[in-house]
Write a structure and sequence with these properties.
The chain has about 325 residues and is α+β, with helices and mostly antiparallel strands. It has helices at about 1-45, 45-80, 95-105, 120-130, 135-140, 160-170, 180-225, 225-235, 240-280, 290-320; strands at about 85-90, 110-120, 150-155, 175-180. Helix content is about 75%, strand content about 5%. It has a four-stranded antiparallel sheet with strand order 2-3-1-4. Helix 9 packs antiparallel against helix 10 (about 290-320). It is elongated.
């Protein structure tokens, strides 16, 4: 009896394997047909489809372009970043010998790496050479610049630099102490604010993309109402009806992602020449960087995912309302 039972079990397993194989082939065939048919229907209406792609592309490209700009500014600020340095301006009546002595005294402190003395006459000469205002400098009755000490601190933390700056300004020989990297810190704060604003804008625009795609799929559902009713009458499941609509959302989102990648690439190309020319004028090696191939493909994938999300929301909301009477 045991051999017969084993043969019966093996005989039952084979039909189940055949049925699963047939279901798998049917599932793949329906997916391929749904993808091809939905793409054909999208391409049959080139004007409306192009407008939808353009709207989606602009909505995705706008925050992406702003993010590219902020990323380039971040790289530029990284190139400009340098160790913190304090510029200590002495009193106008301070003597050069006293200024040199103060520089030597400050250089011996544990929290200061070095202190460089710059004579007021040397400072005026460098200013004239860099600014090109030689005629204006010749008309001055006296040198308006004070003696200067350039302080390189050991620590670079903001609290330590602020404390050192306060101590230096408290010296009787010192008129003012300025932190040279203060502008860079302000730039970093502005860039952080800009990133937050871009993230908020991106969230709003991506939500708008999902709503636009959802409305487009809703219109597609209404235009296929009779077809959906017939399919359900002959036993079609919701999943069977849902697939072509999801592929429609996928094609719209994918096309919008391609348009967004093209718009960002064109914007980068148009701005690259003037930005590089401006960078060369300041003797900088900075060059405007675009998205690149990998990020562009990720942008296209994002559009496709948004298309699927919008289609899924529309189908889940409106498909169940269509039932045969």
């Amino acid at each position: 009896m045991a051999p017969k039972a084993a043969k019966a079990s093996a005989g039952n397993a084979r039909p189940r394997q055949i049925r699963w194989a047939q279901r798998w082939r049917g599932w793949r065939r329906h997916h391929s047909q749904s993808a091809a048919d939905s793409l054909a229907k999208v391409l049959q209406q080139p004007v409306s489809s192009a407008m939808t792609w353009l709207v989606i592309g602009i909505a995705i490209a706008l925050p992406t372009g702003l993010w590219v700009v902020l990323d380039n500014l971040s790289q530029l600020s990284g190139q400009l970043d340098r160790p913190a340095q304090l510029s200590v301006f002495l009193q106008m009546d301070a003597q050069a010998q006293d200024a040199r002595s103060l520089a030597l005294t400050l250089a011996q402190r544990d929290d200061i790496h070095s202190a460089t003395f710059i004579d007021r006459d040397q400072a005026l000469t460098e200013f004239v050479q860099r600014s090109g205002m030689g005629e204006l400098a010749q008309g001055l009755a006296e040198n308006p610049l004070p003696h200067l000490l350039l302080i390189d601190p050991v620590a670079a933390s903001p609290d330590t630099l602020a404390a050192l700056r306060g101590e230096l300004e408290a010296l009787p020989e010192v008129q003012e102490a300025l932190l040279d990297t203060l502008w860079l810190q302000r730039l970093q704060s502005l860039m952080t604010l800009g990133r937050r604003a871009v993230q908020l804008l991106a969230a709003l625009l991506l939500a708008a993309v999902v709503l636009v795609l959802g409305n487009t799929i809703r219109l597609a559902i209404e235009s296929r109402r009779d077809e959906i009713v017939i399919v359900k009458l002959v036993g079609g499941t919701d999943a069977f009806v849902r697939r072509p609509l999801l592929y429609t959302g996928l094609w719209f989102g994918l096309g919008g992602g391609v348009v967004a990648a093209i718009l960002v690439a064109l914007g980068t190309l148009l701005l690259a020449a003037p930005v590089n020319a401006l960078s060369g004028a300041y003797q900088s090696s900075f060059m405007l960087q675009g998205l690149g191939l990998v990020n562009s493909l990720q942008l296209v994938l994002l559009g496709a995912l948004l298309g699927l999300a919008g289609a899924w929301l529309a189908v889940a909301r409106h498909l169940k309302a269509i039932e045969p009477r």
